[in-house]
Amino acid sequence: MSAQKKRKNSPSSMHQPDRTRRILVQLAVAAVLVGLIAAIGINIAMKKAARDDPGPTPAIAAAPESNPNGLAATLTDTGTIRIGRPSAARTVRLVADLQCPACRQFEAAYGPLLTTAVNAGTVAAEYDIIAFLDHASSTEYSTRAANASFCAASADPIAYPGWLKTMFEHQPPEGGDGLSDSTLVEVAKGAGYTDPGFAQCVTDRTYAKFVRSRTLDVLDSGIQSTPSAFLDGNPIEPGELPEALES
């Protein structure tokens, strides 16, 4: 047998294809890992950018002497819309998404009760409207509706609970286009928001960046579903609200 033939049939030459395949597999795995690391890095960078540039902050304010029920309104340090008498001893915080069907059910069942308690001065309400259901519409309806929420609270926070009720009554089905900006403006007119400034705030999506930043903060805090309700900072089941308000 010639030396050339021996070299072709040597163990090293027979294992060369396997070695090549292993190297190719290792390179493919490395490429996937690099892609995953890059994707994670991009996601982190996007979140950081959203927090670093939250856009305009809503200006929400109402003095007790400006309305019959003596309610004050403000934007809290954590970005919630707080409405209630300064003397209110208890606080109910509601985290909701305007595209969320369960949130619509909560509003229908307990919204009037909460509004009555706020007007009576027994509790203050903190409305935390976020947007994590943009995937449930083809037009980022959650973000646009949450933006409209801050537009409404900035224009007239005392009328805000009525606006919220009207919005849930007009909630679009999941998987569709959602309400258009022009429809959001028309729906708000039914709740008393006729100022052209409100319409411009909706169409310009003035607080869209603020909504995204606030949504990231809420989700990072551990909240994974809506509606989520809290009484004096302690989580409660939504259905426990009536009993909690009476205790």
Helix and strand succession?
HHHEEEEHEHHHHHEEH
Assign an overall shape: elongated
- Give the N-terminus to C-terminus distance in angstroms: 98 Å
Widest sheet, order of strands: 1-2-3-5-4-6-7
**Helix percentage range:** 40-55%
What portion of residues belong to β-strands? 5-15%
Total beta-strand segments: 7
Number of helices: 10
Radius of gyration: 27 Å
Question: Low-confidence segments, ≥5 residues, pLDDT <50?
Answer: 1-8
- The average pLDDT is 88
Key descriptive features of the protein:
single chain, about 250 residues, alpha+beta, 7-stranded mixed beta sheet, 10 helices, 7 strands, disordered N terminus
Element layout with pairings:
Layout: H1 3-8, H2 11-14, H3 16-52, E1 61-62, E2 72-75, E3 81-84, E4 90-96, H4 101-120, E5 123-129, H5 141-155, H6 160-169, H7 181-189, H8 196-204, H9 208-220, E6 228-231, E7 234-236, H10 241-246
Parallel strand pairs: 4-5
Antiparallel strand pairs: 1-2, 2-3, 3-5, 4-6, 6-7
Helix pairs in contact: 4-6, 5-8, 5-9, 7-8
